[in-house]
Design a protein that fits this description.
single chain; about 450 residues; alpha/beta; Rossmann fold; N-(1-d-carboxylethyl)-l-norvaline Dehydrogenase, domain 2; eight-stranded mixed sheet; about 15% strand; binds uridine-5'-diphosphate-glucuronic acid
Length: about 450
């Protein structure tokens, strides 16, 4: 099928690349001309595992193209995926002006009927508003649009694998023909009849994705409800960690046993510095705002948010307890990205840690496999190192802020010899407390002795 993708950020680029790799003809556009120029030159503007590889292969097969001309992209597709940003306003409400602009563009540029699919994360009822807006903006041309909601559940870092092996594909539609069209778009994924780029061509055996057809409102709510529930699970685990510290229990033993109950599930129960990124913090806020706007008080989500914000305070309590005076101390920050395997530092807990360290007068040395270029622009006063051991040289403390594998595998015997003081404060529970102490470290983490 011929598909258009508007917005070449994480969601748009992964969606466009994967749908092209699955066999469709995809035209991508973005208002950022530099981004389009980079893509046309064979570059990849974001770091995402496997993305470069599938963009190259889709490009070689002539399945994907990029244009800064939104009209050209809009006219090219039978279905148009809207993947533009919906950043939070100061109130926490999602800013939908980019979606509105795209609706105007689609209405102005389309010459034939289109299926318009919202993939950006949006509050419930946006699809209905989008449908109204498209009808109003296309009054003169009289081109007909159908609207659908197709929320994405991709995680940064594993977005390509998640796209090809989803648990479920949700489509919120107004009529059966839109559902049929979307089923056709996703047929290669549902039938696993594509060359799996993540597993050397062949998908591993496993459960096939469920294709769920719902109303547009339900589809939009499914996305928000899912993200918020995962955030709630993390905050729950973090409070359990605090309790474990007071009571003398081990959070990993507790959450592991909890997770074995199929009704609870073991994922997203990892205690530490809390959640960050451009999804959970903003989605939780937007969901609280949406609920309040229709008179529903989503108290547990407010608590989720509060607990998450307190994680940084809890981390600093540990830092102060260990270091006493922070001012003038040389501190190695291991990890800047909001989680491992991404270069995304938006709303990263690590950045809040760096900000507070600088405010308190620490000398900050930092390292991150992918997050440094973006962080340099925000915190030029930090000393950046490609090599973790250089960051740890002469450090009074090492602060682990992101769960990168390279940090998990660090040689702490070697690091210990380089550091001024053998002190590790681990915000991601990467190491075994006893093992670190046996190596002669003072070691602090969350919810474990
Ligand atoms: C999240 C969802 O997991 C995706 O399903 C969703 O599509 C996406 O948001 C989105 O709305 O676009 P993502 O933000 O990429 O994906 O990252 P996650 O892997 O969910 O992690 C979010 C944060 O929670 C990270 O800071 C991570 O370190 C933290 N986390 C995660 C924990 O602190 N503990 C855990 O047990 C799991």
């Amino acid at each position: 099928m011929r598909l258009s993708v508007i917005g070449c950020g994480y969601v748009g680029l992964v969606t466009g690349a994967c749908l092209a790799e699955a066999g469709h003809e995809v035209v991508c556009t973005d208002i950022d001309r530099e981004r389009i120029a980079k893509l046309n030159a064979g570059g990849v503007p974001i770091y995402e595992h496997h993305l470069d590889q599938i963009l190259a292969s889709a490009h070689q097969a002539g399945k994907i193209s990029y244009t800064a001309d939104a009209g050209e992209a809009i006219r090219a597709g039978d279905a148009i995926f809207i993947c533009v940003g919906t950043p939070p306003k100061d109130s926490g409400e999602a800013d939908l002006s980019a979606i509105d602009n795209v609706a105007r563009q689609i209405a102005a540029e389309a010459k034939s009927a289109k299926l318009v699919v919202e993939k950006s994360t949006v509050p419930a009822r946006t699809g209905l508003e989008l449908s109204r807006a498209l009808a109003a903006y296309s009054k003169k041309s009289n081109v007909k649009f159908r609207v659908a909601s197709n929320p994405e559940f991709l995680r940064e870092g594993t977005a390509v694998a998640d796209f090809f092996h989803p648990d479920r594909i949700v489509v919120g539609v107004e009529d059966p023909s839109s559902a049929a069209e979307l089923r056709e778009i996703y047929r290669p994924i549902l039938e696993r009849s594509f060359r799996c780029p993540v597993h050397n061509g062949t998908c591993p055996p496993g459960r096939k994705a469920e294709f769920l057809v719902t109303t547009i409102n339900s589809a939009e709510l499914i996305k928000h409800a899912s993200n918020s529930f995962l955030a709630l699970k993390i905050s729950y685990a973090n409070v359990i960690a605090d309790l474990c510290e007071k009571i003398g229990a081990n959070v990993e033993e507790v959450t592991h046993a909890m997770g074995l109950d199929a009704r609870i599930g073991g994922q997203f129960l990892k205690a530490g510095l809390g959640y960050g990124g451009f999804c959970f913090p903003k989605d939780v806020q937007a969901f609280i705002h949406l609920s309040a706007s229709v008179g529903v008080d989503f108290d547990i989500l407010k608590a989720t948010e509060r607990v998450n914000k307190q994680r940084i305070d809890r981390f600093f309590e540990k830092i102060r307890q260990a270091l006493w005076v922070v001012k003038g101390k040389r501190v190695a920050v291991l990890g800047l990205a909001f989680k491992a395997n991404t270069d995304d530092i938006r709303f990263a807990p690590a950045l809040e840690v760096v900000k507070r360290l600088l405010e308190e007068g620490a000398v900050v040395h930092a390292t991150d496999p992918e997050g440094m270029p973006r962080s340099k622009a925000l915190f030029p006063q930090v000393h950046y190192h490609d090599d973790a051991y250089r960051a740890l040289q002469d450090a009074d403390a090492a602060l682990v802020c992101t769960e990168w594998d390279v940090f998990r595998k660090l040689d702490w015997d070697r690091a210990g010899k380089l550091m001024a003081r053998k002190l590790v404060i681990d915000g991601r529970n990467l190491y075994m407390p006893q093992g670190m102490r046996e190596k002669g470290f003072e070691y602090y983490s969350f919810g474990r002795d």
